[in-house]
Design a protein that fits this description.
about 525 residues, alpha/beta, disordered N terminus
Length: about 525
């Protein structure tokens, strides 16, 4: 989006009077800090079970192995590291992958262009990012349709305006009106200019990952990018046990440039992994060990996240199912395995299989979000907007989910027992038979004591009826309209913005359009 006044081209180093004036006059958008848990993780595996799964994962790597497809350089790296190579099959001796994983950091900072919105991924922290990857979008006005760049930009703006969302995400939806080989440029430009939260890079082709790095070098400065992490990117494993050249090529680019990768098996239990929880966890751990170890062969110390995308399957239709107990158990167990590897953990999200933001969507999403908090997830992709098994990014559900993310912040705070929280003075003041509405403790704390929804309706029936008896879907539509009407683009040095636009224009002009 072009600014109303375009400043003359200047060197892209930050500062500038126009940028400072814009920053002073910009509307301040409140963004909550990433969650710092003060509640324990929920653990389902005892020590014996963990040791069995870890030993079995080592057996899978040593005896079954993993495939690195169409990537001779990867095979050679593994050979030099001590693995056995048979065609494209890599068999990793017991303990080798785990040893290589030791150089990966237990947590890292992903820097945002607004330093106040940088996030720390790992430890007891939880970073929330929006839905990723749907080719379709849906809203109350236009129904279900293929996503466009305008839809993508609208989602980025909504994410920027959402208080409880810490991260702008990546491919929030696929802008199908832009050529496949060029859309990553527009998506990166939108994240960089329409929001000031952290974002994700492109992984659909290694050269597009390189473009993402180069655009970040314009935004942050080349030296800063090489010394700090400014992107987190999703590297899916073709479960079972297959690493393709596209995803591994993107991982190689990011690891080499000190940028973070989520190494994430894509698990649909019964289809891409065994039907049993222990069997699925064995495969997940084997795949993550191999992927994280490979990132460390590229650059020891490269930041990486233990990922686990988990769903089960409807054995009648073959469709993935979400919010199920089996997926929860796998996620809880995977969190334990990630912590034993001393790695940040990615899983969970606003998962549902429903076609609409209805009761099914709400039940399944609530199960999945709460599971993620309790499982010790550090980076939650898909935390808002997911619909129809991930095929659809829904605008109303985006704001519904984003509102409910506030409850995760509230639960994660835990229970304070300091002198004020003990409230003995309030109990003494009110005494038997009184009420607390006017007491000093309530007056001092009522503004911050309870989480408050910015969407849901708690009015009396008569007031609700007089205002049109609006359901949550209608309220969400109004919320989307309100956020878009009040959106203001965050300030960015005009010289940097111009340099980014010039880079995108030059890249697009250098190649013909491709829609495959």
């Amino acid at each position: 989006m072009a600014e109303a006044v375009k400043a003359p081209r200047r060197r892209a180093r930050g500062g500038g009077g126009a940028a400072r004036r814009a920053e002073r006059t910009a509307v301040k958008i409140e963004t909550a800090k990433y969650i710092e848990r003060n509640v324990p993780n929920f653990e389902v595996l005892d020590e014996k079970a963990l040791q069995i799964i870890e030993a079995n994962a080592e057996t899978v790597l040593e005896e079954v192995g993993v495939n690195f497809v169409d990537n001779p350089a990867a095979l050679e790296r593994w050979r030099e590291a001590g693995a056995l190579i048979d065609g494209e099959r890599v068999r990793i001796p017991r303990g080798l992958a785990r040893k290589l994983c030791e150089t990966a950091p237990s947590q890292f900072t992903q820097h945002a262009r607004n330093p106040e919105k940088s996030v720390v991924i790992g430890g007891n922290n939880l970073v929330l990012a929006p839905v990723y990857g749907p080719p379709f979008v849906r809203d109350a006005k236009g129904g279900r349709r293929y996503a466009t760049l305008d839809d993508f930009q609208k989602f980025v703006k909504l994410g920027y305006m959402s208080k409880w969302l810490h991260h702008s995400g990546g491919t929030v939806c696929e802008p199908t009106d832009v050529p496949v080989n060029k859309r990553h440029l527009d998506m990166m430009l939108a994240h960089m200019t329409l929001s000031d939260k952290p974002f994700m890079g492109s992984v659909t082709e290694p050269s597009r990952a390189q473009d993402s790095v180069e655009m970040c070098e314009i935004l942050f400065g080349k030296d800063f990018v090489q010394e700090n992490t400014v992107m987190t990117s999703l590297i899916n494993i073709n479960s079972p046990l297959t690493f393709d050249d596209v995803m591994m090529g993107a991982l190689e680019v990011y690891a080499k440039n000190n940028q973070a990768c989520i190494v994430s098996p894509f698990i649909v239990g019964g289809a891409m992994a065994p039907v049993s929880v222990a069997g699925t966890l064995t495969q997940v751990l084997a795949e993550v060990l191999a992927g994280v170890a490979y990132s460390q062969l590229i650059r020891p110390g490269a930041p990486v996240i233990f990922g686990a995308f988990v769903s089960s399957i409807d054995m009648n239709s073959g469709a993935p199912t979400f919010g199920t107990p089996e997926a929860s158990l796998v996620t809880y167990g995977a969190g334990q395995l990630a912590r034993r590897l001393n790695l940040p953990f990615r899983s969970a999200g606003s998962f549902c299989g429903s076609k609409l933001p209805d009761a099914q969507a709400a039940y399944e999403t609530a199960n999945s979000l709460n599971m993620g908090l309790l499982a010790g997830v550090n980076f939650m992709l898909h935390s808002c907007g997911w619909l129809e098994g991930g095929l659809v990014a829904d605008f109303e559900k985006f704001v519904m989910d984003a509102d409910q993310l506030g409850t995760l912040h509230g639960v994660a705070k835990g229970v304070s027992v300091d002198e004020d929280a003990q409230a003995l003075d309030a109990i003494r003041e009110v005494g038997p038979g009184g009420h607390y509405l006017g007491c000093a403790h309530t007056q001092a704390n009522f503004k911050t004591a309870f989480w408050k929804s910015e969407l849901l309706d708690y009015k009396p029936f008569e007031t609700w009826e007089e205002e049109g008896a609006r359901d949550t879907y209608t309220l969400a539509t109004n919320r989307v309209d309100h956020l878009m009407a009040t959106y203001q683009q965050p300030a960015l040095d005009p010289a940097i913005k111009q340099a980014l636009e010039d880079y995108v224009a030059a890249k697009k002009a250098s190649m013909p359009d491709a829609f495959m």
